[in-house]
């Protein structure tokens, strides 16, 4: 099969498409024939060597939508099941940017009904990151939340999920993203016009101390890069989410997508053979929705 990997770190030109053996599922694993797989900023970080792994062949890709075509012992899935999954891991020999991928059975959820694979592939990583970050904050209905980077994938899911839970959400984004942010159920702010006094902030734009300064004394801050949260001040509880694969939680998010609560946004699709072009487009910035590989 074909798979997208890096064997040396660098820019988009470091990405390679190689021929490699089709992986076999072990106990409590399934193999998915990939129909679509999203490209995320974390893939660019892996490609650039942010997470280590020098000298290894590293597979790229975390999100997958497709069809189970092989099942290991003890895996409660069937060949032919249409699914989505998160394939966690920064340094792994094969990722989801491939024609087949093996994942743990408990990382898998049924694919959202009535949604094509390309859109379904944008859900696992970003929505799980958003909901697990909201878990860290522990907000209740009626409390206030500032989401930075609210027009992005993680920020957009976080804003929508929080608003759906009855939280009063304000989204910080670029001026031309106002319509999008408001469609998520959030108030809109831009630039330095952000007020203070929020019960919590979910810092998807990685503003650090600038975002922390908008939280009330004794509030909460959640970052999206493990180990990169600012130091606590004024009694603010500070943490950062490290996303984990969770098929049961992913199934809850799938249901919200089916109900139309979560909008699945696709910016552009690419073949695996155009992996360098896809990485170059991601590096340009300003992408709204996800770039998605269609093997």
Which residues sit in consecutive blocks of at least 5 with pLDDT less than 50? none
DSSP helix fraction: 10-25%
What is the approximate shape? Answer: globular
**Terminal-residue CA separation:** 10 Å
Q: Overall pLDDT, averaged?
A: 97
The number of helical runs is: 8
Compressed to H and E, one letter per element, the order equals: EEEHEEEEEHHEHEHEEHEEHEHE
Count of DSSP E strands?
A: 16
Describe the structure.
With 295 residues, this protein is of the alpha/beta class. It contains eight helices and 16 strands. α3 crosses α4. It is globular, with a radius of gyration of 19 Å. InterPro entries: ADH-like_N (IPR013154), ER (IPR020843), GroES-like_sf (IPR011032), Lipid_raft_assoc_Zn_ADH (IPR052585), NAD(P)-bd_dom_sf (IPR036291). Residues 10-293 form the Enoyl reductase (ER) domain. This is NADPH:quinone reductase. It comes from Streptomyces pharetrae CZA14.
Brief characterization of the structure:
This is NADPH:quinone reductase. The chain has 295 residues and is of the alpha/beta class. It has helices at residues 41-48, 117-120, 124-137, 153-164, 178-183, 209-212, 247-258, 275-284; strands spanning 2-6, 15-19, 29-39, 58-59, 63-71, 82-86, 100-104, 108-110, 144-148, 168-172, 187-189, 198-203, 215-223, 237-240, 266-270, 290-293.
List the main descriptive attributes of the protein structure presented here.
295 residues, alpha/beta, six-stranded parallel β-sheet, globular, ADH-like_N, NADPH:quinone reductase, NAD(P)-bd_dom_sf
